[in-house]
Amino acid sequence: MIDSKIPEGPVAEKWTNYKAHQKLVNPANKRRLDIIVVGTGLAGASAASTLGEMGFNVLNFCIQDSPRRAHSIAAQGGINAAKNYQNDGDSVYRLFYDTVKGGDYRAREANVYRLAEVSNNIIDQCVAQGGPFAREYGGLLANRSFGGAQVSRTFYAKGQTGQQLLLGAYSSLNRQIQMGKVKSYNRYEMHDVVIIDGRARGIIARNLVTGKLERFAAHAVVIATGGYGNTYFLSTNAMACNCSAAMACYRKGAWFANPAYVQIHPTCIPVHGDKQSKLTLMSESLRNDGRIWVPKDIEDAKKLQAGQIKGSDIPEENRDYYLERRYPAFGNLVPRDVASRAAKERCDKGYGVNNTGKAVFLDFSEAINRLGIDVIRQRYGNLFDMYEEITDVNPGELANEINGEKYYNPMMIYPAIHYTMGGIWVDYELQTSVKGLFAIGECNFSDHGANRLGASALMQGLADGYFVLPYTIQNYLSDQITVPHFSTDTPEFDEAEKRVQADLEHIMSIQGKRSVDSIHKELGHIMWEYVGMGRTKEGLETALTKLKELRHEFETNLFVPGTIEGMNNELDKAFRLRDFITMGELIAYDALTRNESCGGHFREEYQTEEGEAKRDDENFFYVQCWKYNGNDETAPSLLKEPLHYEAIKVQTRNYKS
Ligand SMILES: Cc1cc2nc3c(=O)[nH]c(=O)nc-3n(C[C@H](O)[C@H](O)[C@H](O)COP(=O)(O)OP(=O)(O)OC[C@H]3O[C@@H](n4cnc5c(N)ncnc54)[C@H](O)[C@@H]3O)c2cc1C
């Protein structure tokens, strides 16, 4: 049986009980303990700065040239908290309930309650750090709504929330660097975790500038290395996002949980050609005022596809606001998985609005007519600019007037890979199945179940980093104070370094004909086609066969130019691609084993007559954990963590009424 270390007591008291009974490290002893934090996104930077401030010695790593450039700066829309500033009936319980329901009842209840509880502290912390959240005229922090909620609880800084919050965390981090409590290693990539006597005691990292491998030891290791969305090649994630550190932990015994739970975001700029390497998100916040539609009449759709008419030529009565039609209670603010599938359904039926037939409209005409362009630009100006820069269409521009009604250019959007709910399995203390190895932020699986609600990733990353890990890691460290600082001159470090060196040399020695990107692109096609929005048993089996062939192609026909010494971006990418292929297989195994549809995991065999996801609580009410079996070619073993709900009644999600 998996021990999740969930404390006893009612769900609302578990965290309080935990804190009351946990072991704490005496302040004088903290400086004797070293902690490695890998990652400087919102999860890593918040954890590293807080642990430093508490007195621990922190070694903090990132692959970018500055912590400020972590992927977290991409976060646009906002961060949730149950402050109830709008007095619209929000509460800790309601945020907890919405998150569990949004995750299609596949999250761990106790974790989610804790998350909702600490959400309010995060806002206070970020404001204290100078985070420039949007404010009402009277000075109170402003809120907007995100999917899966009927209240306004999302705090935001224009369309740059992640960047502003990371600047706050980065300032705190810098203070600790200045105080000597955090040592920062930029442009270092963790390649392996070192296990001594069953405990994580260090890492092997490569200096990406010199190309040299280096050893680092500590009493505990925390991984905060983000999600694995780039397995699909095209995604909204930053180009450098990768799953290699997570895969290194997995290969060293950390279980990987729910890999099939991948989030496909409904509002991204559609793919426009085969030379693209990146997709751009149009923030979910736009769904506060933007309305999603396709033509009612298939003939209009055909004309749009042929470029004979524009969206603004179609009058109100001929538009199908299909989300408002299908889900009257939540309308355009249904959760992402529901909105994405609904877009796919319309496009599959031929109603797509661009030349590829894979796009729907996101339209601000009604909001601009009601509120005026100035108000709309105040809310979404930078997102409108970003859209115009990429597509050369200004969504705030008046495009047509029909019967006295003004129509503005709509955006075109389509679903794309965006976030990964699965990740390294952690217990209530955020410790993985390897002692002394912790995982926080997007790289763990903890709080979002089968689907994450918008603006909840920043909430989880910062909850983990500022408020949960700094408590829970002390339980582990409290009996480590007698363990002296580690030497890196041990057989375990020797062995780990030798293996990484051998892997790098092997990659350099292949000298085949294909570039890293061409193989990665092929991986992306396989994943999107067979392990994407709609999955079937046959498709997943095909994916597994094709992924094996692709691994063979990688092993025999990859070409990496340059040398192993010095800076070599292609080598960095190749190392990550090897892990993406293993990750792809893991996603496919998980999706094939989970014979139900839930959240972002949609198995076409398991759907209702109306095309909604059909869960099977009787047989799949658990977390699927995968254990590595010694090499990448062998299938992993399945372990199950049963879910226990005591406060929330598990039922079918309903966003219609
Ligand atoms: C376009 C976009 C918009 C988003 N908007 C929102 C939003 O509005 N609200 C919201 O809640 N969420 C949003 N999200 C999701 C959210 O941004 C992420 O889930 C979150 O920022 C992840 O934070 P993290 O700290 O876990 O990881 P990251 O920010 O991905 O940081 C990972 C860190 O790990 C380091 N790293 C990675 N691999 C290694 C390695 N091998 N060795 C050393 N270091 C390594 C990197 O250098 C980096 O510092 C958005 C996501 C995207 C893509």
- Uncertain segments are none
Report the helical percentage.
25-40%
Largest sheet: 5 strands, parallel
Number of strands: 21
Structural class: alpha+beta
What is the straight-line distance between the termini?
A: 39 Å
Q: List ligands, each type once.
A: flavin-adenine dinucleotide
Fraction of residues in β-strands: 15-25%
**Count of helical stretches:** 18
Using the CA coordinates, give the radius of gyration: 24 Å
Average per-residue pLDDT, rounded, comes to 96
Shape: globular
**How do the strands of the widest beta sheet line up side by side?**
5-2-1-9-19
Polypeptide structure, described:
Helix 3 packs parallel to helix 6 and helix 5 (about 110-130) crosses helix 13. It contains 18 helices and 21 strands. A hairpin with a 2-residue loop joins strand 6 (about 190-195) and strand 7 (about 200-205). With about 650 residues, the protein is an alpha+beta fold. Strands 5-2-1-9-19 form a five-stranded parallel β-sheet, sandwiched between helices. Strands 11-17-14-12-13 form a five-stranded antiparallel β-sheet. The protein is globular, with a radius of gyration of 24 Å. The model has no long low-confidence stretch (mean pLDDT about 95). Flavin-adenine dinucleotide (FAD) binds near residues 225 and 281. Flavin-adenine dinucleotide binds next to helix 3, helix 6, strand 6, helix 7 and strand 17.
